[in-house]
TrEMBL record:
This is Protein GrpE. Keywords: Chaperone, Cytoplasm, Stress response. Belongs to the GrpE family. It comes from Rufibacter immobilis. PANTHER family: GRPE PROTEIN, GRPE PROTEIN HOMOLOG, MITOCHONDRIAL. Residues 1-51 are annotated as: Disordered. It is found in: Cytoplasm. Signal peptide: none annotated. One of its GO terms (biological process) is protein folding. One of its GO terms (molecular function) is protein-folding chaperone binding. Homodimer.
Amino acid sequence: MSTAAEQNPQEELENTQPENNAATEAAAEQADTQNLETEAPQASENSTAELDEMRDKYLRLHAEFDNFRRRTSKERLELFKTANQELMVALIPVLDDLERAQTAMKDAQDVNAVREGVELIFNKFISLLQQKGLKAMEAVGQPFDADVHEAITQIPAPSEEMKGKVIDQVEKGYYLNDKVVRFAKVVIGA
């Protein structure tokens, strides 16, 4: 019986451990539930406050973006309206000179004086355009380039070295700050 007695206390321990474990687990769950119940309102209040704060930030950001979009749209329209203002203001003195020359031509007896006046105005106008970035193309004698030249016609080349080159320029081409704004209309040697 000593063996049976030895097994009995061991069985008793094994049997009591699950009961103790179950009791311990039940007590732990009850404590956790109480902790959760006290923490749940706090967590709920914190998450609601965070959610309200995030919504407020989102609404403010959205409103800021709408204001930015409206402002940039308005500024863009203003820019388009006044884009040429600087050039127009610079051209007004040339226009004044042309009006004075026109008035002077009505009563002028000396053609050379009128010619000199018109040449002065022309040079002033060209100088102003160059200051604003406009530059005339040099086409005659250059090899034909379809990126900057527009071929009107081809004629027989006067010499072998002029084949494929620009022989005559019908209309000047212009660059504005290194961008072609008007192609040169040219005659090519064939």
